[in-house]
Amino acid sequence: MATLIILIVVALFLAAILTGGYNEQYLDRVKQNWLWDWITTVDHKKIGILYLIGGGLFFAIAGLESLLIRIQLMFPNNKFILGDVFNQLLTMHGTTMIFLVALPVLFGLMNVIVPLQIGARDVAFPFLNSLGFWLYFAGGLLLNISWIFGGAPDAGWTSYATLALNDFSPGPGVNYYVLGLQIAGIGTLISGINFLVTIINMRAPGMTYLRLPLFTWTTFVTSALILFAFPPLTAGLFMMMFDRLFETNFFATNGGGNATVWQHIFWIFGHPEVYILVLPAFGVFSDVISTFSKKRLFGYHSMVFAVVLIGFLGFMVWVHHMFTVGLGPIANTIFAVATMAIAVPTGIKVFNWLFTMLGGRIRFTTAMLFATGFIVAFVMGGVTGVMLAVVPADLQFHDTYFVVAHFHYVIIGGVVLGFFSGFYYWWPKIFGTFLDEKWGKWHFWLFYLGFHLTFFPQHFLGLFGMPRRVFTYEAGYGLELNNLLSTLGTFLMTAGVFCLVFNVLRTVIKGQQAPGDPWDGRTLEWSISSPPPEYNFAQVPQIRGLDAWWLEKQEGNDRMPPAEPLGPIHMPSPNYLPFVMTLGFFISGLGFVFHSIEVGFLGLAVVIVTLYVRSFEEDHGYHLHPKELEEGVNGS
Amino acid sequence: MGGKSGLRHWFVWLTLILVSAGCTNPSMSVLDPAGPVGREQLKLIYLSTGIMTLVVLVVAVLYIYIVIRYRERPGQEGEIPEQVEGNKKLEVLWTVVPIILLVILAVPTIATTFNINEKPDPAESIRVNVIGYQYWWGFEYPEFGVNTANEVHIPTGKKIEFILRAHDVIHAFWVPSLGGKEDLNPERNTRLVLQADKPGIYEGKCAELCGAAHALMNFRVIAHPPEEFNEWIASQKSPDSTPQSDRGREGQRLVGQNCIGCHAVENAGYPVQGSTGPTLNAFSKRTRIAGVIDNNRENLTTWMVDPQGVKPGNRMPAFDHLTEEQIDAIVQYLLELK
Ligand code: HEM
Ligand SMILES: [Cu+2]
């Protein structure tokens, strides 16, 4: 701990000395530095980009972890990675993918796009938005430095008590899990609230709820789910932290606790979490499919209804993760039926997407390839979900590779393909350049085929008796071929991801310039330049119907009608406090990880001081004036 | 269920392509059940697979048709298709049809769930207490006063009521070919009723992540015809733990010094002792060591000297401080435990 602080101080000194010595100009120099700009930014578009970078970084780490797992499982009785280390890889892969990759990359898209889609100049709470990102990033960092300092958590991403308690997981491993997720979780909750308020309050005139693009709708419902699902996680993590640090015995059975309660708390959060992930992906597909079919979304109202219903039912089904816990047939059947019910609104969505394409003019850009590829993959994942709801059958499926296949079909087939689709779709809007289509298609095909090759055989592995979370299996039970295929598929997926990385690097270096409306889009974000100006809309647009921008184009307009005269635009100032506050949380987390209560409270003190400073801060932002705006006016 | 045999063909066909030919040992596959519970569950697996395959096919056919038919062709770039709002009839159709399919699935689900959970008649069944330890299995037959570990013997044709309990962390008891799994909790008992139709060895696994050696927390269910089972019980009631050779006598002494802190051996001349590790009663009758390697002289020696190499993460220390002869004597004695 002390060494860490010393290292940080030394690094600060070195930075000062190497950049020309610490003198009066030092602070100015810092403030002009690009890094400072990114650290203090409160611009939702930049924060969105930060989320994409953070998520990408963690995706690389978690992807590498899964590759190692699959290499170990390539052959029976392989001796590459065994025991605890394997469990660490498994835990970190799952935890990182769920908490640090899937949601954050979607947050990245939401941050940039949602305010643009509703015709807002900004999000409701720019300061909180920045804080949300930094907390997420700090939590993720805390989790991942566990590899270097003291050992990674190894009790699975679900971290079941009692395995995750001190008696059976001594050492700091699970502390990293508990504290890293706690910090990242606060960030997620903050961002969720911010999106909720933004969508409720910041819509342009005429943008009624039933004119919101589907991506905004799904962001809205997802944020509501975050609001209700994350507090149970927070509470659960606190209880586990107290069990581990202060022997409170909430879950420790030898102290009178109850380990099943952890499972309830975890899944009351955990099940909605998967809808939190997949709903925004539904939104992306709805937008992408209607754009590239040149049609309005089929059954818009039922789509909205289905999203809300899925969100609601998402809270009713957590026990389907616990059919084998021994809760009895009554509880099990109630939750089985509730689970099956979710298939209905999901089915509605799938058919509506299909019928949106029906009669359209489908253009197979990379974004559209990912979207249509999704339909097949997601339906396959969805139907195995219904199969898992069949309790007696689930007693066989549960905790086997069948489940691994199922949730990767849903999460990769839904969330990851959704993200990639949105990424290719909105890249020109976000960065003002085009990703290369040829490399994009290589990316799609390698990734998509690799994905099916990896996970389809796993259904059979489960049926042939292979439990999940095992580091080895024996020859002679019919598991060899399917495991081999699965690992080969992983290599293909990896190759696909390399195409993406190459594509991004290429585009960053010499990307082709993109116009404001490259795809003949339908929603508001395409009505302004790419990338959008700092203030998004010089004049807030007047919305006259669903697919507002398409509507105007059909009537021959080349810009949105303004809802207000050109006037000064209020902008929030950059702020370094979110970063400092996060630093406080990070230090505090690290302290508690190592049972150093003093350092833990020291970090919290930093947080409280920054809260105090923020409360009395008198910075009301600044105004951009119309004269400076003239050339940036809503042109495409 | 009418379409069952068709479905079974479909499954067998897929199985054939996806399984490496020839080397499949069927005693661990859900698709080849050896008892009524597994069979009931498999029926539901087929039923749900059938319905769900139908759904996937409908979507796939529609999808392929649409994607091919409505692709933008050269020359169509400027065209704008009709902007359809929706279609109430169609939307009702794909709300109602899934509901019907789900009802078809839900009814047998509920019935079977209650069925397989029924408590068996004590007169007709045998009770076995299962205790899950990191990373081995203890089995007690309270009606017979018999204990064993890692291998549980049962009579065919009889219901076995397994009462499950974890000693430390949560484990899960799973014998794929006999029927679905149930968790072992540290704070309360759970129950699983299984039955085997024919004699044989059925592989069992721990299915809940329980620590470093979770992957190797195996056990075997060994089903006998009823008379043979009764003989087995009788032999377990008074295991023969007297050494048969000089070497074995030396081994007995060494076991007393080194092993019984953790392992129990009955009728061996010293107090029965520890339960940190599996009981060694009648060890020579076990088919495997620690659930992972075949029980023979060579493997047993390897296990004694390097248990971590055989089962990484397990809780037995290596006995590499003993001389080769001493190890050999212990091995000899264990192989004489009947
Ligand atoms: C790059 C492609 C991926 C591959 C090859 C892969 C592979 C694997 C493997 C082999 C396991 C271990 C299964 C077991 O033994 O139980 C696993 C677990 C898991 N994966 Fe993935 N995965 C991939 C992507 C993802 C993504 C994108 C997510 C979510 C966003 C994800 C979430 C999980 C979770 C939650 C677990 C469970 C971890 C646990 O049991 O604690 N994976 N994955
Ligand atoms: Cu276990």
From TrEMBL, chain A:
It catalyses: 4 Fe(II)-[cytochrome c] + O2 + 8 H(+)(in) = 4 Fe(III)-[cytochrome c] + 2 H2O + 4 H(+)(out). It holds the Pfam family COX1. The keyword rRNA-binding does not apply. Residues 30-544 form the Cytochrome oxidase subunit I profile domain. It is a multi-pass membrane protein. Keywords: Cell membrane, Copper, Electron transport, Heme, Iron, Membrane, Metal-binding, Respiratory chain, Translocase, Transmembrane, Transmembrane helix, Transport. The chain crosses the membrane at residues 6-27, 48-69, 89-114, 126-149, 176-202, 214-241, 261-285, 297-318, 330-355, 367-391, 403-425, 445-464, 484-505, 600-617. InterPro entries: Cyt_c_oxase-like_su1_dom (IPR023616), Cyt_c_oxase-like_su1_sf (IPR036927), Cyt_C_Oxase_1 (IPR000883), Cyt_c_Oxase_su1_BS (IPR023615), Cyt_c_oxidase_su1_bac (IPR014241). The keyword Transmembrane applies. Coiled coil: none annotated. It comes from the Bacteria. Gene3D superfamilies: 1.10.287.70, Cytochrome c oxidase-like, subunit I domain. It is an enzyme of class 7 (translocase). Pathway: Energy metabolism; oxidative phosphorylation. It is found in: Cell membrane; Membrane. Its EC number is 7.1.1.9. Its main location: membrane. Belongs to the heme-copper respiratory oxidase family. NCBIfam families: CtaD_CoxA. Cytochrome c oxidase is the component of the respiratory chain that catalyzes the reduction of oxygen to water. Subunits 1-3 form the functional core of the enzyme complex. CO I is the catalytic subunit of the enzyme. Electrons originating in cytochrome c are transferred via the copper A center of subunit 2 and heme A of subunit 1 to the bimetallic center formed by heme A3 and copper B. This is Cytochrome c oxidase subunit 1. It comes from Desmospora profundinema.
TrEMBL record, chain B:
Its cofactor is Cu cation. Its EC number is 7.1.1.9. Its main location: membrane. The chain crosses the membrane at residues 45-68, 92-111. Keywords: Copper, Electron transport, Heme, Iron, Membrane, Metal-binding, Respiratory chain, Translocase, Transmembrane, Transmembrane helix, Transport. Gene3D superfamilies: 1.10.287.90, Cupredoxins - blue copper proteins. It is found in: Cell membrane; Membrane. It is a multi-pass membrane protein. Pfam families: COX2, COX2_TM, Cytochrom_C. Residues 246-338 form the Cytochrome c domain. Signal peptide: none annotated. It is an enzyme of class 7 (translocase). Residues 22-120 form the Cytochrome oxidase subunit II transmembrane region profile domain. It comes from the Bacteria. SUPFAM superfamilies: Cupredoxins, Cytochrome c, Cytochrome c oxidase subunit II-like, transmembrane region. It catalyses: 4 Fe(II)-[cytochrome c] + O2 + 8 H(+)(in) = 4 Fe(III)-[cytochrome c] + 2 H2O + 4 H(+)(out). Belongs to the cytochrome c oxidase subunit 2 family. This is Cytochrome c oxidase subunit 2.
